[in-house]
Amino acid sequence: MPLTTLTLDDKPFDFDIGVDDSNRYINSIDAQDKVAPSYNLIMQTVKPEQKDDLKKVVLIDGKPNGFLCINIAGELNKQFSGAVKVSLGKPSTSQSE
Q1: Distance CA 4, CA 14 (A)
Q2: What is the structure's pLDDT at 94?
Q3: Within a 10 A sphere around the Cβ of 26, how many other Cβ atoms?
Q4: H/E/C letters for each residue in the chain?
Q5: What is the pTM of this model?
Q6: Average pLDDT for consecutive 10-residue bins of the chain (97 residues)?
């Protein structure tokens, strides 16, 4: 799988993320916890030599910046939606006979 590069504060970070990583992330999110799964995804998939630099960006007082971690995880996962356009349509109110 090719690397995915995201730029954070003008610094490129390379992530080795695949559809299995994306699915595990989605399955780990629950109503009570969205930050930890997001932080875990980005830390588990960033290139090992970039982990310390990424921590400097996403941690505040040693704790994950939830909003930022969720945004990064969301950007990483966009690539797995493919070219499928999803839209909401209202049901027809008229009935054909």
Answers
A1: 6
A2: 66
A3: 13
A4: CCCEEEEECCEEEEECCCHHHHHHHHHHCECCECHHHHHHHHHHHECHHHHHHHHHHHEECCEECHHHHHHHHHHHHHCCCCCCCCCCCCCCCCCCC
A5: 0.83
A6: 90 96 94 95 98 97 97 92 80 67
